[in-house]
Write a structure and sequence with these properties.
The chain is an alpha+beta fold. The chain folds into four domains: 157 residues, no CATH class; 96 residues, no CATH class; 98 residues, Barwin-like endoglucanases, CATH 2.40.40.20; 67 residues, no CATH class. The chain has 19 helices and 13 strands. Strands 8-12-9-11-10-13 form a six-stranded mixed β-barrel. Helix 8 runs antiparallel to helix 9 and helix 13 crosses helix 15. The chain is flat and about 95 Å long.
Length: 487
């Protein structure tokens, strides 16, 4: 889509303002026609005899000069001596010499460096900010040179149009049409651009103010297309709904990149909230029936057909849908020889994803042994975990030999035990042992009978009387692991 030149200046940092070494507000005023500047002319006589880039700004020049010219004469004068809008920015960028910018910026930086500190805090601060700006300007110019990019390419002369698949039109019943907001914004751009083209063709009759106003409208609608909120209040439709611009479609968690490209949903995976499963073994996890039947559905269908419990896939799916008892029997057989992988985001180290032997549980939550929480940095306050099903024999072998939780008891970073008691488990042990100073465990330094059916006689040889030497404790991580194995 071709249009008059358009530029977007709202990005921070603004590369255009950096290269031209001008405040962003002045450039915005120039883009939207609030003021003009003298066009540099070489070896040509000029009416106003103005020179320099932005050196002599002519505020409201159109109102003061246009009455002295006819419409065609003013257009000729304007094109020769003054410039405004995005086209003026493009001319200034095209006239830049990046190597000269680097040399001049380096000279100015050295001068500021040689001046040192003046003792005036405000002046020193301005000098420090200027030095940082010069460094960024030199780096930006070097990047343009290295990438072989011309600065004037930052100003749009041709507006790209998204493919139709990314801005669909949906037809509903009753001749209702639902279209993407991008289509509506493109329609506005086309409409205003056509109006501007019509005025430029009839430049002899169209007033200069009308042409400039239409150029400003084109710039505003292009800004709305690229970033709806760049001009303050976002653009709304007739129902007071904010239009979603291109930047709104791209950015954020639900944007095109993070939603479609980086966060793809994969097959043979599920996700649910985790809850504690204290009755599980360390290498087990509890899968809800709904998740398990979805993950292992193809395996269940295969076994149903192999065991002649059904004749085809359609009937097998119907049996699964109706939840017949044979389905759960086959599901348990399939799960018995198939590990699953549990992962909690963010996966910052190797123990962020581990393998478990699944077991069926009621409800809709994944049950997890409390001692494996530290490796995942998880707790039971609403955390979610993803479950993945390894398909190939190599993946299953890797899960069994390297990734099972009971084979990852030590931290890969520092070698300390990773399966330790934390949070609620410590409180529970304290409550259980609050009336028994002998504790509920035994280590190699102490042997204490803690059976609930065994009556302890504290008076026999005073053996079970509490003394400081007999206080149960873990003197090292090996005691903790040994106590766990002897539980």
């Amino acid at each position: 889509m071709s249009s008059d030149s358009c530029v977007v200046l709202k990005g921070l940092p603004s590369y255009i303002a950096n290269l031209l070494d001008k405040p962003l507000k002045k450039l915005e005023g120039l883009v939207y026609g609030d003021f003009s500047f003298a066009r540099p002319s070489a070896k040509k006589p000029t009416f106003l005899r103005l020179r320099g880039l932005f050196e002599d700004e002519i505020s409201s020049c159109n109102h003061s000069i246009s009455p002295f010219f006819s419409t065609p004469g003013f257009a000729t004068f304007r094109n020769q001596e003054i410039a405004t809008g995005a086209g003026a920015i493009r001319e200034q960028l095209a006239d830049l010499d990046l190597r000269i910018i680097i040399e001049n910026s380096l000279v100015e930086w050295k001068e500021l460096e040689d001046e040192g500190y003046s003792g005036d805090e405000w002046e020193d601060r301005k000098r420090r900010i200027r030095k940082v700006f010069l460094i960024r300007r030199m780096q930006l110019a070097k990047h343009f040179i290295q990438s072989n990019v011309e600065p004037e390419w930052m100003v749009l002369c041709l507006l790209p149009v998204l493919p139709p698949e990314l801005r669909p039109i949906v037809y509903r019943s009753g001749d209702k049409v639902v279209t993407s907001d991008i289509n509506e914004l493109y329609k506005r751009v086309i409409r205003r651009n056509n109006n501007l083209a019509y005025l430029l063709k009839r430049s002899e009759l169209a007033p200069a103010d009308l042409v400039m106003c239409q150029e400003k409208l084109v710039q505003e609608v292009v800004d709305t297309l690229l970033d709806s909120g760049s001009r303050g209040q976002p653009t709304r439709d007739g129902h007071n709904k904010v239009y979603k611009s291109l930047s709104d479609v791209i950015e954020g968690k639900e944007g095109r990149f993070r939603e479609t490209l980086l966060g793809k949903r994969v097959d043979y995976s599920g996700r649910s909230v985790i809850v504690v499963g204290p009755s599980l073994s360390l290498h087990q996890c509890g899968l809800p029936l709904e998740i398990a039947i979805k993950l292992f559905q193809l395996f269940v269908i295969r076994d149903l057909i192999t065991k002649r419990a059904t004749s085809n896939v359609r009937i097998a799916k119907r049996k699964i849908w109706e939840k017949e008892p044979i389905v759960w029997e086959i599901l348990q057989e399939v799960m018995r020889g198939h590990p699953v992988l549990l992962n909690r985001a963010p996966t910052l180290h190797r123990l962020g994803i581990q393998a478990f032997q699944p077991t069926l549980v009621e409800g809709r939550t994944i049950c997890l042994h409390p001692l494996v929480c530290k490796g995942f940095n998880a707790d039971f306050d609403g955390d979610q975990m993803a479950v993945h099903l390894p398909l190939s024999l190599e993946a299953q072998a890797e899960a069994r030999l390297l990734m099972f939780s009971h084979m990852n008891l030590l931290s890969p970073a520092i070698g300390d035990p990773i399966c330790v008691l934390t949070q609620d488990m410590l409180i529970g042990l304290y409550v259980l042992t609050i009336g028994n100073r002998l504790g509920i465990c035994a280590n190699r330094y102490n042997s204490c009978g803690n059976s609930p059916n065994k009556k302890v006689n504290y008076n026999i040889n005073n053996y079970y009387k509490y003394t400081k030497d007999k206080e149960p404790h873990f003197s090292s991580s090996y005691d903790a692991l040994g106590a766990y194995r002897q539980k």
